[in-house]
Amino acid sequence: MRSDRHIRKAEEHELPRIMQLIECGRQKMRAMGNIEQWADGYPKEEVIMQDIENGNSYLVIENGVEIATFAFVEGPDITYREIYEGRWIDSVTPYHVIHRAASVPSVHGIMRTILDWCSCRTNNIRVDTHRQNTIMRQALKSNGFLYCGIIYLLDGAERLAYQRVLCPNK
Q: Three-state SS across 30-95?
């Protein structure tokens, strides 16, 4: 992680800033042609507030400014129970999931910063993303994640599933 960046848990009073970061992420996706992901106002404030209350919401800080947000949630995740057209690298070892990552448009290397931080806390990380989210898919690939298959969200939406296991369970 860059020395001028650090990560900390988000607090309730920071909800407006987190929502600004989410909107930045949404706009970046739209600019890259991903018009379907995070549609209809998702993620809503209630989702982010639940992340905060559960201790799963984090902020990336650079030079005293909140530049990114993400949720880091201990599994199991109900939407990861079934995977189609593939399989998880490790389906036995406990895992964590990264959700709702977003950043301001002018910074680079955010996913590497997030993944480095998360990897210090677990060796088994899963992430899902929309098929059109080429930015996230490339970031995952360049950070050692492998495509595992397709999962479906509770609303039935398809997502591409990725996993990185640093010390795979044999």
A: HHCCCCCCCCCCCCCHHHHHHHHHCCCEEEEEECCEEEEEEEEEECCCHHHCCCECCCCCCCCCCC
Distances from the Cα of 101 to the Cαs of 11, 93, 111, in angstroms? Answer: 16, 24, 8
34-53 confidence digits (pLDDT tens): 788 887 788 999 999 999 99
pTM over 0.90: yes
> Residue 37 and residue 100: Cα distance in Å, rounded?
11
Query: Whole-angstrom Cα distance, residue 164 to residue 59?
Result: 22
Name 15's Cβ contacts closer than 8 Å, sequence gap at least 6.
45, 48, 49, 52
Angle at 8 between CA 76 and CA 22, to 5 degrees: 75
Copy the structure tokens of residue 166.
Answer: 């640093």
User: 126 - beta bridge partners?
Assistant: 97, 163
pLDDT in tens, 130-147: 999 988 999 999 999 999
Please give the Cα distance from 120 to 122 (Å, whole number). 6
- pLDDT at position 16 over 70: yes
